[in-house]
Amino acid sequence: MSKIKSYYTNVKSELSKVIFPIKEQIRSAYLSVFIVVTVITLFLALIDGVMALSLSSIIN
User: InterPro entries annotated for this entry (predicted)?
Assistant: First the structure.
C-alpha cells in the first residue's frame, strides 16, 4: 500500500512541474502546422501534375 501512495505522491509532484501551453501557443502551433501541410500538399500536387503531363506526352 505504501508503494501506491508513494507512486501517487510522485505523480502529483511531477504534474505540478508540467507547464501546459496557453491558448495563444496552441493557436500559433496549429497555424504553423496548417501552413506547412498546405505548402507541402501544393508542392506535391504540382509535382504530380508535372509528372502526369510529362508521362501523357511520352505515351501519346
Answer: SecE_bac, SecE_sf, Translocase_SecE/Sec61-g
> In Å, what is the CA distance from 1 to each residue of 4, 6, 53, 60?
5, 9, 70, 77
CA distance 57 to 41: 24
Spell out the residues 6+ positions from residue 21 whose beta carbon is closer than 8 angstroms to its own: 29
Q: What is the mean pLDDT of residues 15-37?
A: 96
Within a 10 A sphere around the Cβ of 51, how many other Cβ atoms?
10
**Is the full-model pTM beyond 0.70?**
no
Residue 39 belongs to what domain range?
19-60
Domain membership of residue 1 (yes or no) is no
| 4 belongs to a structural domain | no
DSSP 21: P
